[in-house]
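Progress note, project year one: complex with threonylcarbamoyladenylate.
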Amino acid sequence: MISTDIQLAAQFLNNEGIVGIPTETVYGLAANAFSERAILKIFDIKQRPTTNPLILHIKNYEELKNVGTDIPEMAHQLAKTFWPGPLTLLVKKQKQISNLVTADQNTVAVRVPNHPLTLELLHSIAFPLVAPSANPFTRISPTKAIHVDDYFDTKIDMVLDGGSCSAGVESTIVGFDQNQVIVYRLGAISIEEIEKITGNVTLLQSGHKKTTTPGMFKKHYAPTTKIILTSNVQHELNLWKDMKIGVLVFQQALQNVPLTQQKILSPEGDLKIATANLYNSLHELDSLNLDLIIAERFPDEGLGRTLNDRLTRATQK
Ligand code: TXA
Ligand code: MG
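Model obtained:
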């Protein structure tokens, strides 16, 4: 069921139910972070291994001290700069945070989402929400209420409809090791923006043994259609002539592909707009029964790195 009724969403959550919630990044699958029963439902519905920890969504910066402890000064700086917004901080967890949330690690991932409906929802309940992205394990993340409803239908209590997600990719995850600032997952805030506050950061590459993070699973965000990522779309098109092909390009449409099978992410060449359109375009291409999707590689800077990261993962089968 899709609805805009915040009180109804609160009621379900108060009763250990599961609600799809809008955020500025992607839709989340939310549950009461203090109910182990509700948390277990999320792992079950998403078919997600319990070794992959969840992000806590809190209502404001002041709540951070109630869920985390020994918080580095740099974390405070980042939170004050980017919250509410698409930044997730890894901090040492308070005892009251269940090991189910953190997959037995002593850190907890926390953020304040920047969406008016979800902020109002968080203010109307007495607990934080755990919310992984509302897609089945390894599938494309949802950026519209209908995506969530299509994925989970009656397995969840409702989807709170907050329209299309404005940022369109997941939050950037940042952690701390002594004086080092570590980016665990590229996301809606570019490394360059983070570095304006912190100075140089270390980017953990996927597969790094230090992390169980997520986005760190190699295969992720994948459409069911096979996808390849290339700097030369035309060249790939020539190689796969006999197939029904969809293309995903940054600015410029191609001459020899039907327009219905093309997604142009930002004709004006704006990486923020391209990012906002990425998952929805993948969802649409994936529904066309194509043999292959050819995606164009982005410039490797700013949000272009986030886009390349997600597209690279989408190519893993
Ligand atoms: O934008 C977002 O972050 C969205 C919206 C709904 O807030 N949520 C999201 O959640 O992307 P999820 O579960 O799909 O991805 C969060 C990732 C997980 O894959 C997990 O591995 C990582 O964050 N994570 C959570 N807690 C962690 C921890 N304590 N240490 C390392 N990684 C952690
Ligand atoms: Mg996810």
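The longest strand covers residues 87-93.
Residues 23, 25-26, 28, 52-55, 86, 88, 90, 102, 105, 107-109, 113, 131-133, 170-171, 173, 184, 211-215 surround threonylcarbamoyladenylate (ligand 1) (CB under 6 Å).
No further modelling is planned for this target in the current period.
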